[in-house]
Structures are given as C-alpha cells and as structure tokens.
Amino acid sequence: MPLSPEQQAEIDTLRAAPQPTLRAVSPGLEAHLYTAHQVLDHGFVRVIDYMGDDAAICQAARVSYGKGTKSVQNDEGLIRYLMRHWHSTPFEMCELKLHVKLPVFVARQWIRHRTANVNEYSARYSIMDREFYIPAPEQMAAQSVVNNQGRGEALQGEEAARVLEILKTDSMRAYDHYEEMIGQDGQQGLARELARMNLPTNIYTQWYWKVDLHNLFHFLRLRADAHAQYEIRVYADAICNIVADWVPFAYKAFEDYRLGSVTMSAQMVDCMRRMLKGEAVTQESSGMSAREWREFQDVIEKS
C-alpha cells in the first residue's frame, strides 16, 4: 500500500485506543475510518473523521432533538424530497474529512471546488517523495477529435511504448535534478521552495480535505461523471463508495436525482414533447446548435 510506515503506525495507534462517544455514529463509515483505499498507482483516499449521518439530515430539516414519531421510512422519504427539490441546507449538517494522496495535476483540478477546507503537504518545508503517476497503457490515449478537453483512442504499439518511456525518463530526471539542487554532501543547496519548481505535475502530493455533504455531492456529481477526466474520476468513484456506506439514504437519493438524472434545456423539452406527439424533429427544426443537438441525441439514446 502507498502509506508510509509513519502513517501506518499512526493508524495502528488510533485503532488500538477506541473511545466511547455520545455523538451520532454511522456504522458503515466507522468501518472505513483510517483505511487507505488505493487509487491509481501510488494514491489513496482514507477517512480521518466525520460528523453526522442520515438522521442528522432529517433532524436539521425538522429542527428537532430526536426522531419522535418519525419512522425510518419517513426519514428516507424526507431525504428524497429534500434532494428532489434542491433543499441543500440540511445536507450541510454532515461533514467528512479525508486524507488524499494524488498527483499534482489532479489536485489542480480538485482545488477548483473551493467550498472545502484544505491543508496540503508543503514542499517549502519538506522534501517531496520520488513518486510519480504513470498511466496504465489503456489510459494513454490520443487527443479526442470531437472534444478539445477529452481523450480519443488509446495509443498502440511503438507509439505507446515511446510515450511511456518519455514519461518515466522525464519524471526521474526531474527528480534527480531536484535532489541535486536542494544540496547533498555538505553543499549549501537551493531553497526547497525554489527547487520544487522543477518537479513535474505528475508527482504525488497529499492533503487533508474537509467538506460538507452538500458540497461533496456537488463535487461527486461533476467528478464521478463519465465525462470527467479518468484520473480524478477514480478518486470520485472511491469517495462514492465511502459516502454510500456513510449516508445510504442520502447517497441513494443523490444517485437517483443527480448522478442518474439528465438536465434538459427548454428547447430539448419542447423537442421531446413534439417527438412524443409523433413529429419528426431534425436539428434544423429543433432550434438547437449542432453540439446541443448531439447532446440531446445522447440523452435520448441513453433513456
């Protein structure tokens, strides 16, 4: 596993000294505490702490101190209602703190979600590890010809081998120079905060990331989507598995009303109605651009 010996020792110590608590506990998430779920070649996601559960969402919505006469079925129905009608505040009552190890270029995408608290490993004070993300062969793809920010077909044969060798060689060479610059064998060396500028963005960093459930769902809706970049999507998928165990009612509602739903424009809805009435609608008569029409066709084919 990509955990360091020091991190594993910390986990072992914490697991050896469980504490009683009066706070809300999620049995599903308790099983995930401190467990490192491996992602990519050297990365991981692990739960450090959390607050709240499905019941906490309902408690906030009802502003009550207990379940009262409400049943579990009523809780699930309430959560689905809140999700369906975009009542987000009750979901903000739950929080999750994760320890994530990820490539820097993935972190730069991730940090665009600004509604979270982040503390990242500092290369000003510490020396970065010699760990780089090298894509698996099936992930080394050419540029998409229809999407400027997406991938096309996987590279094959000699071209794939050539690109893979470049990635490995450049990563190792950059780290060799990084080590040389920060000083060895009594040399004064360059300051770490300057030497780090030469490192590639596929080097791994780490951070603690704390977010409330509403904003976490927003992150997952975008990053667990099939159109998201693979390298961040696999982290989102790992977090989805964790959240499903933490707040099963809320996650099922999120799956149904966010992940598994589609958004349609007014023109798309109009075209759908016309089609249901038997009208033959074309892109020219739809009022949509060629790209919008293509997206609409994708929605219809997947429905």
Automatic annotation (TrEMBL):
Q: Which Pfam families match?
A: Thy1
Annotated metabolic or biological route of this protein: Pyrimidine metabolism; dTTP biosynthesis
> Record-annotated residues binding FAD?
T89, R112, H113, R114, E120, D212, L213, H214, H218
Cross-referenced InterPro entries: Thymidylate_synthase_ThyX, Thymidylate_synthase_ThyX_sf
What Enzyme Commission number does this protein have?
2.1.1.148
Where does the chain bind dUMP? Answer: Q109, W110, I111, R112, E120, Y121, S122, A123, R124, R196, R223
Q: Which family does it belong to?
A: Belongs to the thymidylate synthase ThyX family.
Q: Which HAMAP family match?
A: ThyX
Q: Subunit structure, briefly?
A: Homotetramer.
Query: What is this protein's name?
Result: Flavin-dependent thymidylate synthase
Q: Which organism is it from?
A: Phaeobacter gallaeciensis
Which gene does this sequence derive from? thyX
